[in-house]
Amino acid sequence: MARGRGDLKARAQAAPAGSAFAAEVVTVGNEILSGRTVDTNFAHLARLLEAAGARVLHHESVADVPDEIAAAIQSAMSRVPLVVVTGGLGPTPDDVTRKGVSQALARPLSLDADILENLRARWRGRGGRDPMPANNELQAMVPRGATIVPNPVGSAPGLQIQHEASTLFVLPGVPMEMEAMAEQTIAPWIRARAARSVTYFTLRTHGIWESVLAEKLHDLASALPGYAVAYLPGGGGVDVRVRLPLGDPAGLDELRERARRVLLERIGAYAFGEDDESLESVVGKWLVARGYHLAIAESCTGGLLAGRITDVPGSSAYFDRGVVCYSNAAKVALAGVPASLIEEHGAVSEPVARALASGVAKVSGTEVGIGVTGIAGPTGGTPDKPVGTVHVACFAPEGEWHRHLRLTGSRGLIRDRSVTAALDLVRRLLAGLPEPVR
Description:
By secondary structure, the chain is α/β, with parallel strands linked by helices. Helices cover 40% and strands 23% of the residues. The protein has helices at 5-13, 30-33, 40-52, 66-77, 97-105, 113-125, 175-193, 210-216, 220-223, 252-267, 279-290, 304-310, 328-335, 339-345, 350-364, 411-431, and strands spanning 21-28, 54-62, 82-86, 109-111, 141-143, 147-149, 158-163, 166-171, 200-206, 228-234, 237-243, 271-274, 294-298, 319-324, 368-374, 389-396, 399-406.
């Protein structure tokens, strides 16, 4: 554990009156501790709890061992009024969370007849042969005094237990099941009891370093008194998340607008969207607004750019085609790049990127074209063109832009960042913003 019990307890007790009450999350699973499974459940729960009004003070992951689970639950419940546990509610022998809960609270397990019948009905409804395997009956074992949390998408029911001054929620580890149950049960439970819920406004940026962003926003404390600002780098950009001050819910729109206005005045050219808006969806909106269609010719990104574009529902309204021109011959045949251009400048070059963008637009008859060519590594680099050298270009009625990228990191990271840079280049061009610095 990163912090001692006394430290966390002091933090919980020091929370000001009217603030969100404290919570802790325990995730259970050998697969999480081995690194084979990424703990996305905690990320989802932390966001959900915070938005509902619970302040998450600590997170712990433990193995599928009843003693470890029990110790983690007892420790958490000694500090905070809300504890959420996920994982280990399935039908296999390593699903021992119920046993850990029973041990932690000194509440014996007993078979719940209603749960058992529901499990059998679900088994039959899915075409299972009678009798249902005995292992599945483990999911009907419930600690004394527990209330069942319905599972709308799976078989394992969750648990809610009031124990002394704390409330314990126990949910399955399958993300789809956990998310549905938390949103339908835990979030409303918190909102009904929390002094307030937390509201955020997030402005998403690309093309600016986190340190430079912080410099441009250094005066936010005076410009937005009562707001709290956090910088969240990742995914090729930095999100600026602003927690709105506590106030009349009727004034939230005004509070959001104030935050939006102050941020855009300082970093408008770098801001591509708000809250959960993606860069590819924003590009799609600009294409629709202009009445344009898009075609893509990509080499080192191998179709990832087209994949990002078509991840957006309704992208068929503006996306025409994407071609992967991996070989030089493909660049010539599919995008109309002159062979002499490749011979003179090399496949990874500004002229070829520009020719890919304009050529695929001409071949497809679209108004907008994107070209990407580069060296994603880990081999293939030269002193003049090291691994991470990528050229992206955009062709549109508004102009023809190019950007030379010098990226670092793994092959996957270089490819992902190349896609993001290409999307942002299109966004800036169509939005009438300044061309990014090379």
